[in-house]
Design goal:
five-stranded parallel beta sheet; 650 residues; Rossmann fold; eight-stranded mixed beta sheet; alpha/beta
Length: 650
């Protein structure tokens, strides 16, 4: 009987090893995680529903955590008040939690990142601030898209439409400033630039925002990048509509705050939608999956259950949902590897007299490094797609939808993927199975309806009303006025050099305001070296004219490529041509013809002296011999004297 019992025991051990591992790796009954959110915001409300929905699914799934219940402690914080948000975040860190989901805002994320580094508590954050990196904050885990990639998508969109300058409007906090820095770098890589940056505080008044928009309307760029939050962003569109800045020639590109707001709010007022017609916005790309469909199908009941019935799921909801699941799978591996949850006091933290923050209550998570390592290794398909981290700590395959606000909703006109770095109408997940094709010729988007309800792509710039004019010096010549001269009648500057300059300006994709300033009196040619010196001393911004490029001048100023090269030339006076029969006399003067004739007579006399004794043609009466001398002399001008030849029959 004992032998049979032992046999059954051995067989059960061999046939069910996973069950034994699970029992041996069972964790504590309850594990607490934390979350820092702003409940009265769209993102905060969506994130709370996503966290609680994920916990319900995890705790009811027998394949993960082996009976350990995951619970969350959520702290409501104020993202608009940096000081108050910091205090609330530090107070929450007195709670012993093994990980934190959030915060949603960059300011508090920076502060909490310093704290979790000391306490060794992984921070599962969906903040998009590009300066939050694992290099500075090893325990910071970004579970959403980074602004580094979002701004690369914006720059690709600007470059695709052949715009070279943009105006950036942003909120003056960590999120806004760092996002625009990332945008500036991305545009520079595309040989574009931000021509005008303007920021505003979070507590800006309506009059201040209107003044800001008026200053933007004076600028030459009509491509406006709006990087802020939903509260201020919607105000901007409303005021821009009142200022007629949502019509033809304007381009508005909003970052993903707009798509997050429109996706999450089921009932957006009609006046808000009508005020942003033609706007382009971005949305982090979420591929279709079974888990995504399941979350969408039960979202309505979950949002009612947790008092956010007016909110729908958006991209941040998918990211937060997967953040909790990633933490659950990491904890499962953590317990399987023998991990234990324990906390110890930090000797660096102690209370000062009269201090209200109980710093000594903050404890170090002893095995936080091990849990962080397991989080970095997770690899599963979640509601937001493939959840896997690359070497830099970001989610793999970041991508964005390019969305056009039109009518009562949104229309996807294309995608941007970091895999190829290009804009395309093909979904990003269809590209991952192929080698990346980075040829710009492959870029394509569907037609966009721009502000003003036009399908024609805006030029993106206008001549600014308050731009500083370039002072361009032009030589006021006395001679060779065809190159450049001042018209005494109209005072305008004209000439070949001016025509070349204006044609070159017409090829530029941005405006240049300029003013011609004549240099010289017009009664004599000006001193060109002095003109060069005036450009060098900034009295003139540039100079245009028949200015020779010499070695000494290139030392101090830059020249364009030469557009006139004379080479080796011969100068001759222009005279009226004689068209009579005596025109052949024109090459020589009368004196030259007389000398030439005298020399021919002398030659004739010399020939007569030598020939008249032996040649019968030079003999006869004196008059005949004189005629022979003259005839021989002048015949040399018109006849070619050759030796007579006899043709012999062949």
């Amino acid at each position: 009987m004992e032998i049979a019992f032992l046999t059954l025991l051995v067989l059960s051990l061999l046939l069910s090893p996973s069950g034994i591992c699970k029992s041996l790796a069972a964790g504590p009954p309850v594990v607490n995680i934390g979350s820092i959110l702003q409940f009265n915001s769209t993102t905060g409300g969506v994130a709370e529903v996503a966290i609680r929905s994920a916990l319900e699914d995890i705790n009811s799934d027998p394949t993960v955590l082996n009976g350990t219940t995951l619970k969350v402690k959520i702290k409501d914080t104020n993202c608009f008040d940096g000081f108050l948000g910091m205090v609330q975040g530090l107070q929450f860190m007195e709670t012993d939690v093994i990980a934190i989901v959030g915060p949603q805002c960059s300011t508090i994320s920076h502060i909490i990142s310093y704290v979790v580094n000391e306490l060794r508590v992984p921070l599962m954050s969906f903040a998009s601030d590009a300066t939050l990196s694992t290099i500075q904050f090893p325990f910071f885990v970004r579970t959403g898209s980074s602004d580094l990639y979002q701004m690369a998508a914006v720059a690709a969109l600007v470059d695709y439409n052949h715009w070279k300058i943009v105006t950036a409007i942003y909120i003056d906090n960590d999120y806004g400033r760092n996002g625009i820095i990332a945008l500036d770098d991305a545009l520079t890589a595309k040989r574009c630039k931000i021509s005008y940056k303007v920021s505003f505080p979070s507590n800006a008044k309506r009059s201040e925002l209107i003044s800001l928009l008026v200053s933007v309307s004076y600028m030459e760029s009509r491509v406006i990048i709006l990087h802020t939050g939903a509260e201020h962003g919607l105000k901007f569109f409303s005021m821009a509509n009142q200022l007629n800045m949502m019509g033809n020639s304007y381009v508005w590109i909003a970052t993903d705050w707009l798509s997050a707001y429109l996706d999450a709010n089921s009932s957006v007022p009609a006046d808000i939608i009508s005020g942003m017609q033609g706007v382009l916005t971005l949305r982090p790309h979420i591929p279709n999956s079974k888990m995504k469909s399941n979350l969408i199908s039960k979202w309505s009941s979950q949002s009612h259950k947790y008092n956010h019935s007016d909110l729908r799921v958006n991209t941040y909801g998918f990211y937060v949902y997967d953040s909790v699941w990633a933490l659950a799978w990491a904890l499962d591996a953590f317990f399987s590897d023998g991990g234990r949850i324990s906390f110890s006091n930090d000797s660096k933290l102690h209370d000062e007299a009269g201090e209200t923050l109980h710093l000594e209550a903050m404890s170090i998570f002893d095995m936080g490094n091990k849990l962080l390592e397991n989080i970095r290794k997770v690899n599963f398909t979640g509601a937001s797609g493939q959840v896997q981290f690359d070497a830099s700590g970001d989610l793999i395959h970041p991508a964005y939808d390019i969305i056009n606000i039109i009518g009562n909703g949104m229309r996807t006109v294309g995608f941007w993927s970091n895999y190829s770095g290009l804009l395309s109408t093909i979904s990003p997940e269809a590209l991952y199975s192929k080698p990346p094709n980075t040829s710009l010729a492959n870029q394509h988007l569907y037609d966009v309806i721009w502000p003003g309800e036009t399908a024609q792509r805006p030029r993106g710039w206008v001549f600014p009303s308050n731009a500083k004019e370039l002072k361009i010096g032009v030589p006021n010549r006395f001679s060779f006025k065809e190159f450049v001269t001042e018209d005494n009648g109209t005072g305008s500057i004209k000439g070949y050099c001016i025509d070349v300059f204006t044609q070159a300006l017409s090829l530029l994709p941005y405006p240049v305001s300029y003013k011609f300033i004549p240099f010289g009196s017009g009664t004599e040619n000006p001193n060109y070296d002095k003109l060069i010196h005036m450009v060098e001393s900034n009295e003139f911004d540039a100079a245009i004219g028949d200015i020779a490029i010499t070695m000494s001048r290139t030392v101090t100023i830059d020249f364009t490529q030469p557009f006139i090269e004379t080479g080796l030339v011969i100068l001759a006076p222009v005279k009226k041509h004689i068209k009579t029969s005596w025109a052949f006399l024109q090459p020589f003067t009368l004196e030259m013809w007389c000398v030439t004739g005298l020399f021919f007579l002398i030659v004739g006399v010399v020939v007569w002296v030598l020939e008249h004794r032996i040649n019968e043609d030079f003999r006869g009466p004196p008059s005949q011999q004189i005629i022979t001398i003259f005839w021989f002399s002048f015949s040399t001008l018109f006849f070619s004297h050759t030796i007579p030849r006899v043709l012999l029959p062949s």
